């Protein structure tokens, strides 16, 4: 297959529409993009010649899409290219291989025994070689990092890795020869959910993640809103209860102090002298053990308050609650819903809340979507 060509803005709009919402008949595609049939034909010709789009029978197409070339469906060959996504934590690197539609087809994880950038780049290159050996036609690499990232290439600051100004994309590209894009891990997850997940087709969409930290992503007009303060303490300074707990990770009564897994574990340990896992604390709270129930109940009320505040100010069509900490909803869901009602107008529409327990492979998939966007949007990293 020939290499994909650089795309014009109009060609990109066609490619994205088919990639995210296809297969689509030409009639439907022209309607969605407000194009004439002639303009659509002109735009799709190079996309078909380059192999990005394909004309193929679609068994599920409506009758009008099977009658004549003007309505012949256009789709992408999802397996025509593979993309690698990596999520870096302070202890592990989680890797996935995805199709062009971001479906995970393979996983590979490796322990991270050091944080030296050269060592991390070597590990990513070794994982790339192993995955590419089993899944050829790799078109690009996406890397998600907890921290502030500049220009899809340089990790400006990562407290988890103790990095400043690390040109990670360039280091990995030197070792692999592949296009590499690096982004904040929450931003990557938001992009994946916007294109292929819970936010697909929505104009106003919010992702809130709870786990080791608090993550927030906003989509307006169907596009993620970038922020210069991304992952620089959003949750530390969002004060929910000024009289709330003080923990090492956040300001007193902040979203971080009330909701993150390390803070919840810290509160229980400080009160009982025992170190318990997050899962053990949730189980104890469900069993009405007093200290665990108090901490988890407070976290549930904090989450409900936070969700209500987001809904009041952003008015999203949907909020996706994700991350490894969303098991909180199973134990403290009633407290969450009570606080939403308390902080919302009685006539306000119910919040469309979707919860998703995300493991680190979901975060890695988000990074792979960044690589897909490099292809379709023409973004550049390393």
UniProtKB/TrEMBL annotation:
Gene3D superfamilies (UniProt xref): 3.30.420.40, Winged helix-like DNA-binding domain superfamily/Winged helix DNA-binding domain
InterPro entries: ATPase_NBD, ROK, WH-like_DNA-bd_sf, WH_DNA-bd_sf
Coiled coil: none
UniProt record similarity statement: Belongs to the ROK (NagC/XylR) family.
Protein name: MarR family transcriptional regulator
């Amino acid at each position: 297959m020939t290499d994909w060509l650089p795309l014009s803005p109009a060609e990109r709009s066609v490619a994205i529409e088919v990639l995210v919402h296809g297969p689509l008949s030409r009639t439907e595609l022209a309607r969605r993009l407000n194009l004439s049939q002639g303009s659509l034909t002109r735009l799709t010709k190079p996309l078909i010649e380059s192999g990005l789009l394909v004309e193929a029978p679609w068994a599920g197409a409506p009758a009008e899409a099977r009658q004549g070339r003007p309505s012949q469906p256009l789709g992408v060959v999802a397996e025509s290219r593979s993309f690698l996504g990596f999520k870096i934590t302070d202890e592990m690197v989680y890797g996935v291989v995805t199709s062009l539609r971001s479906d995970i087809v393979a996983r590979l994880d490796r322990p991270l025994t050091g944080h030296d950038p050269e060592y991390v780049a070597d590990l990513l290159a070794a994982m790339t070689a192993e995955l590419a050996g089993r899944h050829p036609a790799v078109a690009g690499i996406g890397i998600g990092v907890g921290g502030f990232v500049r220009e899809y290439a340089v990790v400006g600051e990562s407290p988890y890795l103790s990095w400043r100004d690390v040109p990670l994309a360039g280091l990995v590209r030197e070792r692999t020869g592949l296009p590499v894009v690096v982004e904040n891990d929450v931003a990557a997850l938001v992009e994946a959910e916007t294109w292929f997940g819970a936010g697909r087709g929505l104009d106003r969409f919010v992702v809130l993640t709870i786990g080791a930290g608090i993550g927030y992503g906003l989509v307006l007009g169907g596009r993620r809103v970038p922020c210069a303060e991304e992952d620089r303490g959003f949750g530390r300074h969002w004060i929910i209860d000024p009289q709330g707990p003080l923990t090492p990770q956040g300001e007193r009564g902040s979203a971080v102090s009330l909701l993150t897994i390390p803070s919840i574990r810290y509160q229980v340990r400080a009160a009982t002298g025992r170190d318990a896992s997050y899962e053990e604390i949730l189980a104890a709270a469900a069993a009405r053990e007093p200290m665990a129930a108090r901490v988890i109940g407070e976290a549930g009320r904090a989450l409900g308050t936070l969700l209500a505040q987001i809904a009041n100010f952003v008015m999203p069509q949907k909020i996706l609650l994700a991350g490894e900490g969303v098991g909180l909803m199973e134990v403290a869901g009633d407290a969450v819903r009570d606080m939403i009602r308390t902080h919302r107008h009685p006539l306000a529409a119910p919040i469309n809340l979707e919860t998703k327990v995300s493991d680190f492979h979901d975060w890695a998939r988000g990074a792979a979507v960044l690589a897909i966007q490099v292809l379709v949007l023409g973004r550049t990293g390393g």
